[in-house]
Amino acid sequence: MADIILGIESSCDDTSAAVIKDGYLLSNVIASQQVHKDFGGVVPELASRAHEKNIVPVVSQAIDKAGIKASDIDAIAFTRGPGLLGSLLVGTSFAKALAVSLDKPLVMVNHLQGHILASFIKQYDSENRQPSFPYLCLLVSGGNSQIVKVSSPLDFEILGQTIDDAVGEAFDKCSKMMGLGYPGGPVIDRLAKLGDPKKFTFAKPHIPGLDYSFSGVKTSLLYFVRDRMAEDPSFLENNKEDICASFQKTLIDILLDKLIKAARQTGIKEIAIGGGVSANSGLRERIVLEGKKRGWNTYLPEFKFTTDNAAMIAIAGYFHYLEGERTPLDVAPVSRMADF
User: Fold this and answer.
1) What is the CATH number of domain 135-304?
2) Predicted model pTM
3) Using the 8-state DSSP alphabet, how is residue 186 labeled?
4) DSSP 3-state assignment of 148?
5) Which CATH number describes the domain made up of 4-126+308-322?
6) Cα separation of 84 and 41, whole Å?
7) 200: phi then psi, degrees, rounded to nearest 5
8) Cβ count within 10 A of residue 66
9) Do residues 193 and 280 make contact, with C-beta atoms less than 8 angstroms apart?
10) Measured between alpha carbons, how far is 132 from 49 in angstroms, rounded to an integer?
11) Could you state, in order of their start, the residue ranges of all structural domains in the chain?
């Protein structure tokens, strides 16, 4: 008998619902919020209000697009955390109410697990390449930069992580500092394609082990632009493509240096990436290049699975459901989660 999982994602500013049947994606609906661009970042109160408005039509549309009835659902997977507490509360409350009304079990999901397991979302008429266990996942987003060893769908070990800022945060803050807009990652990526990545040099941290640090490279860029513009007020405008290309290359170098080290230490050649920054074209190209050079099997999620989406929550929930895990109705959302 087929297992049908409804996934609900509301950790930040995207309201999403998806339906997966035996691991195959039937639907994935996302309602994005544009209002935050005016503020240069996500405003939590506005985000939770938008979730309240969007969640009913989004879930309804996901069920309709999947070609099923609500009663066909076997379990409801939802994001418990980490994320914005108000946003998570909307998704969690709705998932509970729906579970009670349908008399279906709940399965809570760690949002980060969803990103890590995005490579296992199967689609009809697709190749559906999936990493073999164990594999290493470079998890990169606005809130996280980690190297995770994945030994099974429910067995995760963090080998290294940022000790300060996440790489996505570095993209966003430096884009804002240069007046390029929000979100910063896509803007810098677009401009970087037009620039020379070797034109300028920015400081790289020397952190022992497999941990990351991105605060220093942000400071390096800040001082660099400040000093150059003191000499020439038009410097930033005349060199923004080269600055973006050089800055992006520096961040990718930092990420890949530790990933290469982790692969060497563990002997693992199955390498995946996940999270919002995994959509960065420079990072994707570099991962593939390093994979060919080092004999890795590399797995890049489709662009639609790099951002926050319910398909990844549904697939993670599917694995938890198969293991017999169920979540009680008194569970509360959490903005931070200590581990996987």
Assistant:
1) 3.30.420.40
2) 0.93
3) H
4) strand
5) 3.30.420.40
6) 13
7) -125, 155
8) 22
9) no
10) 41
11) 4-126+308-322, 135-304
